[in-house]
Every structure is written in C-alpha cells, then in structure tokens.
Amino acid sequence: MKPDIHPDYVVTEVTCTCGATFTTRSTVESGQIRSDVCSQCHPFYTGKQKLLDTGGRVARFEARFGKKKAADK
C-alpha cells in the first residue's frame, strides 16, 4: 500500500435519536456520528412497529396525490 493516502481511523462515538450510544472506529474526523436508528430502536431488531416519517413526507405525498384506487383488471 502507498503511505499517507488513507484517512486516520479514530475512535468514534455513535449517538442515536433514541438516546443509545456506542463506541466504534471510523474515518470521521470529528469523532462523533448521529444516527436516526440503531439496533436498540430499529423495528427489525425490537419487533415493534415505529413510524419513522421525518418531516411528514408521507402525509405531504398523500395530500398532494391522494390515495388512488387500484386499477380494475
């Protein structure tokens, strides 16, 4: 490998919106990452349904286009 072409690999603290934090290593220079979901709050791991609609995008789409009926075959 060529010297001095790879970024530094630093200890990084990941913080989720649910409040969970864990430490890993990353090339992020600040040493901090903010995440929307993690294994402690993701529905796949918890088995619970959680709405992840950020900013009302689904509601805005439904208001704009409405719910359409399925096409008759």
Describe the structure.
There is one protein chain. The model has no long low-confidence stretch (mean pLDDT 82). It is built from two helices and three strands. It has a single domain, classed as Rhinovirus 14, subunit 4 (Irregular). It starts with 9 loop residues before the first strand and ends in an 8-residue tail after the last helix. It is elongated and about 60 Å long. With 73 residues, the protein is an alpha+beta fold. The longest helix has 9 residues, at 57-65. It has a three-stranded mixed beta sheet with strand order 2-1-3, with no helix packed on it. Helices cover 18% and strands 23% of the residues.
Summarize the structure.
The chain has 73 residues and is an alpha+beta fold. It is 18% helix and 23% strand.
